[in-house]
Amino acid sequence: MTDRRGMPADRVDISPVWFVKGAAGSLSLGLVVLSLSFVGFGAFARDAGFPLWQVVFMSVSIWALPSALVFVAALAGGASVVAAGIAVALSAVRLLPMTIAVMPLFGTTDRIRRVWLVIAVHYVAVTAYVEGFLKLPKVPEEHRLAYFIGMGTGLMVIATGFGAVGYLISGYLPVSIGPGLVILSPLYFLLSMLKAATTLSEKFALAAGLIFGPIAHSFTSEFDLLIGGGAAGIAGYLAERWRRERTL
Amino acid sequence: MSPIGEGWQAAALIIVAAALPTEIWRWLGLAIGWRINPRSEILLFVRAAATGIIAAFVAHAIFFPTGVLAKTPIALRIAALAGGLMAFTAFRGHVLIGVGAGVAVLLAGQVLFAG
Description:
The complex is a heterodimer.
Chain A: H1 16-25, H2 29-47, H3 52-62, H4 65-76, H5 81-91, H6 95-102, H7 114-122, H8 126-135, H9 144-168, H10 179-182, H11 184-196, H12 200-217, H13 224-247
Helix pairs in contact in A: 1-9, 2-4, 2-9, 2-11, 3-9, 4-5, 6-8, 7-9, 8-11, 12-13
Chain B: H1 7-35, H2 41-63, H3 74-90, H4 95-114
Helix pairs in contact in B: 3-4
């Protein structure tokens, strides 16, 4: 696809109409689950001593809850800023395959100003990834980037707002937020990915990841998601190859 | 007192030690994704890997939870996941119903075990 570079220089901005449609599309089960997680993050960051503006700034600038949690937890635990930064970088590697995988979904972006792509990838995180896979295929190709940016903006504004709410009510939160709330996000991620999985490789990787993740965890607690998930990806890919060779 | 201080220094620290170490992977993904043929074999693997990582996260949350979820029996957590999957399948891929069923199984189990 190197010929994309040879496209016309007079590129356009994204469509405001589809940006708004995307923002409306952010109102989803994924947003509910994400917002509840942000309530927890806001309360956690307050306990760790961060002021409200820093919690909001972290939410918007990092925009990946695991990274933000790792950062806050590391600093609260007395780690140096350098150590915290390294821990964040390690936990965020998973965004690399997600970003690569989501890009073909953006459809035709040849005529759109490059800066919009840079903005779009900032929104890549598990929720936007999952919702993107569910929704983007139904959006006309030339408007998918606008839709995704609108959706990401909607998710960010509302979830960050709930982060602030969590911060403000942290003293009044019940000591234990119910386990029913905590199990929401694994359930949501599993079922949404199952719905979004179209190829055998993805379905196989989903099942294998459930098994390989805990196995990897038994010998590394830092890289278990990457190693277990990566191995599941290889297994899924091989399963697809195997099926193809059998049907040929 | 914030662990990273106040004012613009704190904002700079968040950018350098948290936002950039996260964003760098997205930029790298953009640079690589830009050059990849949407129909290529490597993309098939990358998509599977991204999916596998999410599955590993799900398993991690069920088998090795932290916080309040850790106080529930593991059999109950697995039952909640299975219940969610079954409802999802029975209702032909309805995510909301599946998630609701999973939460319901967990809450019902808690009431039963506590009583």
